[in-house]
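Page 47, continued from p. 46.
Same chain as before, 61 aa.
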Amino acid sequence: VGRLEVGEPSVVVAVAATHRREALAACAHAIDRLKQDVPIWKKEHYADGAVWIEGPGAPHS
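Result:
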């Protein structure tokens, strides 16, 4: 994705369904699977330096 500013989306999930409940359930399922299967990490930048925030399977762990 590259560098993101605070508040910018880092994941976009699009679904189509006849009813809202099914669409929301599909989005929730997609995010849950993403968090389960994809190594997620981020680097937070501060005025005095930066720090890696790592999830399971992140390449910097």
